[in-house]
Write a structure and sequence with these properties.
Elements (H helix, E strand, L loop, with lengths): L19 E10 L13 E8 L2 E5 L2 E5 L3 E5 L5 E4 L5 E10 L13 E3 L2 H18 L13 H15 L16 H12 L6 H7 L4 H12 L3 H19 L4 H7 L5 H12 L3 H7 L5
Antiparallel strand pairs: 1-7, 2-5, 2-7, 3-4, 3-6, 5-8
């Protein structure tokens, strides 16, 4: 070993801090996907163990194969579609972590799990079951979370070693009409969007577009537009210095009244109360 040159300066790690406050749950039926709240300040690691399905994150669609993972960042609106079978096995690990920058390489990237990563996850699930038990709402035992935090940190570090992939697979076909509509919504959510506008842009009748969208996305087009706007509004209220009025205008609301009314209807509190409640989270 070499002689120490400076007893006050060591090796500084560039890795993210350990994740904390972990919550694990499983979905074994496609109909159960999306039961969790789609507005959150937590990270969500989606682990596909069985059955191909697609996850839309903001305006990008990712086909998730068995053995692959996708990390959803705080404030990323996500939902599911095109799941090949009702019988699935998807594991969800949600957690908090102050350092978003340390996990930036995992953003909007699908990663295949190595044998080591699967091993860490198996230990994590077993440890979580030991701590929480089988009763819903059970509290984690005192000091029982430290080993789980470390195991989750190892999972993330293993995923960060890979390049991952983004978007559709090579050779994919032209985006479907629904993908084109969702992209159009994300690019124009700050405008006064009307279904008649979509009818003019896309070569389908308004009723056919509504039917296709609800069948694929599991919600009406109007509800989707509202969710996109609310997601962006939440991000702006907490992650910027914009006023409530300015955030509302940037999300397509013509007045503070209409913005506040829509916000409270969907989230249960006013935009200002939400902003004050979550101050300092970013």
């Amino acid at each position: 070993m070499p002689e120490v040159g400076n007893y006050f300066q060591g090796i500084v790690s560039s890795q993210p801090e350990l994740p904390r406050n972990l919550i694990l749950f499983r979905r074994d039926r496609a109909a159960m996907l999306g039961l969790e709240h789609d507005y959150h300040f937590r990270f969500v690691l989606i682990v596909n163990l069985r059955t191909v399905g697609s996850v839309v994150v903001d305006k990008r669609s990712f086909e998730l194969q068995p053995g692959e993972t996708l990390l959803i960042f705080p404030n990323q609106f996500h939902h599911y579609h095109s799941v090949r079978s009702e019988s699935i096995c998807w594991l969800f690990v949600t957690f908090e972590c102050s350092s978003h920058e340390g996990l930036a390489t995992l953003r909007n990237r699908i990663h295949r799990m190595s044998d080591a990563c699967l091993g860490y996850l198996e230990h994590l699930v077993a440890r979580y079951a030991e701590q929480v038990g089988t009763s819903p709402g059970s509290a984690v035992k005192k000091d029982g979370g430290a080993s789980m935090n470390i195991l989750m940190g190892l999972v993330l570090l293993d995923l960060m070693k890979q390049d991952g992939r983004s978007g559709s697979r090579a050779g994919a076909m032209r985006p479907s009409i629904i993908d084109q509509i969702t992209l159009y919504v994300w690019d124009n959510f700050d405008k006064d969007l009307k279904r008649s506008d979509l009818k003019e842009k896309f070569p389908y009748s308004e009723s056919h577009l509504r039917m296709l969208f609800r069948k694929r996305m599991g919600m009406s087009l109007g509800a989707y537009i509202q969710k996109v706007r609310m997601n962006r509004a939440q991000s702006l209220l907490v992650g910027s210095s914009l006023s409530v009025s300015e955030a509302g205008l940037l999300c397509g609301y013509a007045s503070l009244h209409s913005f506040s009314r829509a916000f409270k209807k969907m989230l249960g509190l006013s935009p200002l109360a939400y902003k004050n409640l979550n101050a300092g989270k970013y």
